[in-house]
Design a protein that fits this description.
The structure holds two protein chains of two kinds.
Chain A lengths: L10 H21 L2 H26 L7 H20 L15 H5 L15 H24 L5 H21 L1 H4 L10 E2 L2 E2 L3 H27 L1 H11 L1 H6 L4 H27 L9 H14 L4 H21 L4 H15 L3 H25 L13
Antiparallel strand pairs in A: 1-2
Chain B lengths: L4 H14 L1 H7 L1 H17 L2 H4 L10 E8 L6 H20 L7 E8 L4 H14 L5 E3 L3 H13 L4 E3 L12 E3 L4 H16 L3 E7 L2 H16 L3 E8 L7 H10 L3 E5 L4 H11 L10 E4 L4 H7 L1 H4 L3 E4 L8 H14 L7 H20 L4 H7 L4 E2 L7 E3 L5 E2 L3 E5 L5 E6 L15
Parallel strand pairs in B: 1-2, 1-3, 3-4, 4-5, 6-7, 6-8, 8-9, 9-10
Antiparallel strand pairs in B: 10-14, 11-12, 12-13, 14-15
Helix pairs in contact in B: 1-3, 5-15, 6-7, 8-9, 11-12, 15-16
The chains are: A mainly alpha, B alpha/beta.
C-alpha cells in the first residue's frame, strides 16, 4: 500500500463537500417552497445521526441500534427548555397550577420537578443537549467495551436500551409528557419558531451545524485516531497487542456518534416543534441505521444523501400512495441491499469515481502538488 | 352574495338534509332530482365571495383532507373512521354537495406516528389548502397536529372520545369528552345495580388516567369507595396479578379503561380466571371497548360486560338503521360500527351544516357558525354543537352479547352537556 496522504481532504472530497454545500445552502432553498424546505430541514437532522453511525459503524465497526436514544435525549433537552418558555403563568392560567407544563398539570403534579429547573437557562440547555447524551454514551461505552462486549451483542444491548428508554419516558408521563411527548412549543427566547421565516433561518443554522459535524467527522477519519479505528474494525486483537487500549477508542467514537445524534435531535425539536418517544424506540433507531446503510456506511457524505433520499422517498411515496407506501419503501430497501451493498456511496465509487478521477489527477499534476498520490480514503 | 340568497340556499340545503334517508334507501332517481336544484345553488354562491382566504374551492368542487393512520398499529382502529368519513362525503355529494360544490378529498396517512401526523397536517393546510380536515384518533396525534391547525388556521373534526382538558378554536370534537362518558355511567351502575365499591384500571397514558381521575372524584362524591387503581403500559398482556387483586378485594365494579391489543389479553385472562361477567359479580364497566374491539376480543370472552358510550351499532332508530345499511353496502356485510366510527361520520355533516349556515367556506366564518349547529339526522340521534366546540349527546350503557353486539340497557333522558374543563374533577 502506498503511503497515505496526510492532508485534511483530497481534492475529490473537497469537490464532494462543495457540491453538498451548494445543494443544501443554494439549490434547495431556491427550488423548494417553505413547507418542503422545512421538511428537508427535518430530513437533514437525521443526517447527523447517520453521520455518527458512519463513524461508529462504518469506521469503528460498532453497530449501535440505539442511536434514537441520543437523538431523543438531545431533542428532549431542547424541548424541555422550549416547553418551560411556552408555559408562562399567563399561557397556562386555566390549569390548576399555572406556570408548569400542561402535561404535568394533567398528571396532578403541583410543582416543577427539581431536575426541570435548570432548563430555564438557555446556556445550560445548549450544554445539556450535547453533554447529557455524551455522558450516557460514555457510561454505556465504558460498561460495554471494558468488558469487551462487541459485535452483535453490543447491537442487541443498545436495542434493549432504546426499548427501556421508551418505556421509561412513556411510564413517567407526569415528568416527560408520556406517549404524547412534549408538544406545543412556540418560542425560543421570545423568537417565534413557528413562522416560515424562523423555519428558514433554522434550516440554515441546521445546515451550518451539519457541516461543522461533517468537518469534525472528516477530521476524525483523517487523524491517526481514525486510522486506529479502522484497524480496530478489521483486526481488533492486533491493535490491542500493539499496545492500544481498544476500549477507550471505541468509547470515544461512540460518544462522538451520540453527540452528533443529540445535535440532530435538538435541531429536530426546533424545526418540527415537538418531541415524542416515537423517536427514541427501537423502530426509529433501526430506521436511522437504514439511512446510513442506504447512503453507504463508509462514506461521510453518503450518510447525508442516505438520510435525504430515504426520507424524501418516504414522504413522496406516502403522499402518492397512502395505502401502499410502506411496501414501496420496503422494496427500495431490499433493492439497495441486494444491488448496492455499499449504498449510494458505493454506487459512486464504482461508476462515477473511475471516470472523474483522471480529471482530478490531471488537475493535480498541473498544480504541481508534491503530495504523495492519493489512494482513496483509508481502507475503503 | 345578497342577503336574500342566503336563507334560500339554507332552506334548500335543509330540505335536502331531511331527505337524506330517502337518498340512501331510494337510489339514483332521487339523487338526480336533488342534484338539479342544487346547481342553481352553486351559481348563487360565487367562489370569490364564499372563499376569501384562498382555500381549495373552485366553481364546482371543494377539497377537504382526511388524515388518519392507515398503516401501523392504529390502522385497525382508524380504518372505521376513514370509511365513515368517505361514506358521509359520498352521501353529501349525492345530494349535490355543499353550496353547490362537490366535496373532493385528499387522504394522507398518519402512519400511527405523531410527527408524521404533524407533517401531513401541515401539507394538507399549506400545500393543498384544504377547507377542513377530518382526522386524528389518538390524543397524541391530536396534540401533535394542534399547533399546526392553530398556526395555519385550519379546521379539524376530531372523532374520538377523549380526556377533555382542551378546547381549541380550530377543532370540533365530535366524540365525547371524559365527563360525558363517565358520570352518567357511574350513576347508572350505582342506582340500578347498587354498586358500592370500584376497582379502577387502565392503560398508562393521559386518557385512562384523566378518566379514572374523574371517575374517582365522582365515586367519592357519591360516598362510595375506590378499592384499587392501577395502570399498565400500552400493549401490556399480563393481567394475572391485577386479576388476583380483584378477587381479593371483591369490588362490585371493575372499571376498565384498557385500550388496543391489551384488551384481548385482559378479557381472555379474566374469563380464564373464572370471573364470569354474565353473573355480574363483579360487574365490569368499560369505556374503551366498542364493537370494533370486540371483534378482536371475541364476543364470547366479553359477554355480560357493560360499556358506556354514546353510540352502539344496535341502536334502533331510523337514522341509525339507514346508516348501518349504507355503511355495510359500501364497505361489506361483515363490517361493525363502533362509537368512534359514528362520531367520524358526523364530521362531514357537521361541517356541511356549518358552511351552509355561514354561507362561506372561510374558516373564521365556519367557526363562528358552528356553535348551535344541530344534526337531526345523526345515527346516534339528535346532536348539537356547544359553544365549547364539543357535542351535546346522550350517554348510553350497553351490555355485550356473545355475537359481538351491545344491547342498549340505558340511555340518559336528555342530552348531556359537554364540559371539557370540569370543575371539581381536576
Amino acid at each position: 500500500m502506498k503511503p497515505q496522504s496526510n492532508r485534511f481532504m483530497s481534492m475529490q472530497e473537497m469537490v464532494g463537500f462543495a457540491i453538498l454545500a451548494l445543494l443544501i445552502f443554494v439549490i434547495f432553498p431556491l427550488i423548494l417552497d417553505p413547507f418542503r424546505l422545512n421538511l428537508f430541514g427535518k430530513y437533514l437532522t437525521y443526517a447527523f445521526v447517520a453521520l455518527g453511525l458512519v463513524l461508529c459503524w462504518g469506521a469503528g465497526g460498532i453497530l449501535s441500534l440505539g442511536q434514537g436514544v441520543f437523538f431523543g435525549l438531545g431533542g428532549y433537552c431542547m424541548a424541555m427548555f422550549l416547553k418551560l418558555e411556552a408555559s408562562t403563568p399567563e399561557n397556562t392560567k386555566i390549569q390548576s397550577t399555572p406556570g408548569i407544563p400542561d402535561f404535568m398539570d394533567w398528571n396532578q403534579l403541583t410543582e416543577l420537578p427539581f431536575w426541570w429547573q435548570p432548563f430555564h437557562s438557555f446556556t445550560f440547555t445548549v450544554i445539556a443537549v450535547v453533554l447529557v447524551p455524551v455522558i450516557f454514551a460514555f457510561i454505556i461505552g465504558v460498561a460495554m467495551f471494558r468488558r469487551r462486549v462487541g459485535g452483535v451483542y453490543f447491537a442487541i444491548i443498545t436495542q434493549a436500551i432504546a426499548a427501556i428508554m421508551t418505556i421509561l419516558i412513556i411510564g413517567q408521563q407526569g415528568y416527560t409528557g408520556g406517549v404524547n411527548g412534549i408538544t406545543d412549543l412556540r418560542t425560543l427566547m421570545g423568537w417565534d419558531i413557528r413562522t416560515d421565516e424562523a423555519k428558514n433561518i433554522l434550516y440554515f443554522v441546521n445546515g451550518g451545524l451539519l457541516f461543522a459535524c461533517l468537518f469534525a467527522a472528516q477530521y476524525i477519519r483523517r487523524s491517526k485516531l481514525g486510522r486506529i479505528l479502522i484497524a480496530m474494525r478489521d483486526q481488533e486483537d492486533r491493535v490491542r497487542f500493539s499496545g492500544y487500549d481498544v476500549a477507550d477508542f471505541k468509547t470515544f467514537v461512540f460518544c462522538a456518534g451520540a453527540a452528533f445524534a443529540a445535535i440532530g435531535g435538538a435541531m429536530f425539536t426546533l424545526q418540527v416543534g415537538f418531541m415524542s418517544p416515537s423517536f427514541v424506540g427501537i423502530v426509529p433507531s433501526i430506521e436511522m441505521v437504514i439511512f446510513c446503510a442506504v447512503g453507504g456506511r463508509l462514506s461521510i457524505l453518503g450518510a447525508v444523501y442516505g438520510a435525504l433520499v430515504v426520507n424524501w422517498a418516504k414522504t413522496t411515496f406516502s403522499e402518492s400512495f397512502p395505502e401502499l407506501w410502506l411496501l414501496g419503501l420496503g422494496a427500495l430497501f431490499i433493492a439497495v441491499v441486494l444491488a448496492f451493498p455499499k449504498g449510494l456511496a458505493g454506487l459512486y465509487d464504482d461508476f462515477i469515481a473511475p471516470r472523474v478521477k483522471p480529471l482530478f489527477d490531471k488537475l493535480r499534476s498541473k498544480s504541481n502538488s508534491k503530495d504523495a498520490d492519493f489512494v482513496g480514503a483509508p481502507a475503503e | 352574495m345578497s342577503d336574500q340568497d342566503f336563507p334560500n340556499g339554507k332552506k334548500d340545503a335543509r330540505a335536502a338534509g331531511l331527505s337524506r334517508r330517502s337518498v340512501l334507501l331510494g337510489g339514483t332517481a332521487l339523487t338526480a332530482s336533488l342534484f338539479a336544484p342544487s346547481f342553481g345553488n352553486a351559481q348563487s354562491f360565487p367562489t370569490a365571495e364564499i372563499n376569501t382566504t384562498g382555500l381549495a374551492v373552485t366553481d364546482d368542487t371543494v377539497t377537504i383532507g382526511i388524515l388518519h393512520s392507515i398503516t401501523g398499529t392504529m390502522a385497525i382502529s382508524e380504518t372505521g373512521s376513514v370509511q365513515a368519513e368517505k361514506l358521509a362525503i359520498d352521501q353529501i355529494n349525492a345530494m349535490g354537495g355543499i353550496l353547490g360544490r362537490k366535496i373532493e378529498y385528499i387522504q394522507e396517512d398518519g402512519a400511527s406516528d405523531w410527527p408524521t401526523f404533524a407533517e401531513k397536517a401541515k401539507k394538507l393546510l399549506v400545500n393543498d389548502k384544504v377547507a377542513s380536515v377530518m382526522g386524528c384518533w389518538t390524543s397524541a396525534s391530536r396534540k401533535a397536529v394542534l399547533p399546526v391547525f392553530e398556526q395555519y388556521n385550519g379546521f379539524l373534526y376530531y372523532p374520538t372520545f377523549y380526556e377533555g382538558l382542551e378546547q381549541s378554536p380550530n377543532v370540533i370534537y365530535t366524540g365525547q369528552e371524559a365527563t360525558q362518558q363517565i358520570i352518567a355511567g357511574i350513576d347508572w351502575v350505582t342506582k340500578t345495580k347498587g354498586a358500592k365499591s370500584f376497582y379502577l384500571l387502565g392503560s398508562d397514558y393521559i386518557w385512562p388516567r384523566t378518566s379514572n381521575k374523574i371517575a374517582r372524584k365522582h365515586i367519592e362524591k357519591l360516598g362510595l369507595k375506590v378499592v384499587g387503581e392501577e395502570y399498565y403500559p400500552l400493549g401490556h398482556t399480563q393481567f394475572n396479578s391485577v386479576i388476583n387483586k380483584i378477587r381479593l378485594k371483591k369490588p362490585d365494579v371493575i372499571y376498565a379503561i384498557v385500550v388496543g391489543g391489551s384488551n384481548v389479553a385482559f378479557y381472555k385472562q379474566l374469563k380464564a380466571a373464572g370471573i364470569d361477567m354474565t353473573k355480574e359479580k363483579p360487574l365490569l364497566l368499560t369505556i374503551s371497548v366498542t364493537e370494533d374491539e370486540i371483534r378482536g376480543i371475541g364476543g364470547e370472552n366479553i359477554e355480560g360486560a357493560y360499556a358506556c358510550m354514546k353510540y352502539f351499532q344496535s341502536l334502533q332508530n331510523d337514522n341509525n338503521l339507514a346508516f348501518v345499511k349504507a355503511f355495510k353496502e359500501m364497505w361489506g356485510e361483515d363490517m361493525v360500527i363502533g362509537d368512534v366510527t359514528q362520531a367520524a361520520y358526523l364530521g362531514p355533516w357537521l361541517w356541511k351544516a356549518a358552511v351552509e349556515k355561514a354561507g362561506s367556506f372561510d374558516v373564521d366564518k365556519v367557526r363562528a357558525a358552528s356553535p348551535g349547529i344541530e344534526l337531526t339526522t345523526a345515527p346516534e340521534g339528535y346532536v348539537k354543537v356547544h359553544e365549547n366546540h364539543h357535542l351535546w349527546s346522550k350517554t348510553r350503557v350497553g351490555r355485550a352479547k356473545a355475537d359481538g353486539q351491545y344491547e342498549v340497557v340505558f340511555e340518559t333522558a336528555d342530552l348531556v352537556e359537554p364540559d371539557p374543563f370540569p370543575e371539581g374533577y381536576q
